[in-house]
User: Fold this.
Amino acid sequence: MTTVNKKDILTIISPDDFHLHLRSGNILKSVIGMSASQMKRAIVMPNLTPPITNTNAARLYREEILSVLPKGSKFEPLMTLYLTDNTKAYDINIAAQTDFVKAAKLYPLGATTNSDNGVSDIKNIYPVLEEMQKVDMPVLIHGEVTRHDVDIFDREAVFIEEVLVKLVHDFPNLRIVLEHITSKDAIDFVLQTSKKIAATITAHHLLANRNDMLVGGIRPHYYCLPVLKRSNHQAALIKAATSGNPKFFLGTDSAPHSKTEKQSECGCAGVFSAPNAIELYATAFEKANSIDKLEDFASKFGADFYGIPYNTTTISLQKQTTSIAKEYKFSDLTIVPFMAGQTINWRLV
Assistant:
């Protein structure tokens, strides 16, 4: 249960991150400690190069993550499979028999970073989705269409209308997480559907809108996909996250890219929030006068949806003005975090 004492210490059940990018190799080694100090468990995204498309690849990736954890860390990576046009029902059946593959990820072809192996037409994976429904494995969806005739700010809404409505109709018992939602359209859809449908919300979509990214000059370290939307959508996300509705839970979508990749012609999509993730959420919830709702959102609702027990440990946050680093210099790269150089209201004790 959430508690705040006279010294402004907020104590909650250890949170989980239900949408996290850790990459591999040197980047993984550089950033894993940040998430491990903040979160007890994380749903790890499979969009590596090459992608994690089968159980054996997921096992090897999990072993890589565990091998570079800080000494004594109890962080638990929860693995996912990357769905492609060539994924078979057999792949899902094998994964469902493990205790470490918890879901499969649907990237529409070309939707975001490393999605060039994504699904070109959702009908191509209907047999796979049928198997997922049968074994009760959630599908995690990057909900955007990628047609050039659709405005980038409308791609989530169009995906819901053109793809997701039919998907829910065709697979009524399939558990679906609409990832990193960014719009009132997504919130309304999730609220109007069954308890089989849930959504993750990022800290950066709670704390920023497209003005923060575009006004006064382009800020590439705020660029992500789905892209930040208008302030009215931001307000709707804050309301949903702090509502106490169990359909909405924490997923940072923290995605490390080097400073040179972000500040380039590519301007790669991804916001790096891992170093201060839970403090960022606490700041957003406090601004909404809903700090008492943070524990449910961060530590309970996601676990409930995935059918896993709550963590038995706790973390504490202190009410204290905290400066976010301007950048993190590692041996072979520099990464700029979300809200670099700015201050927030909480600090992880």
Observations:
- The domain at 3-348 is CATH 3.20.20.140 (TIM Barrel).
- The first strand starts at residue 3 and ends at 4.
- The chain has one domain: 3-348.
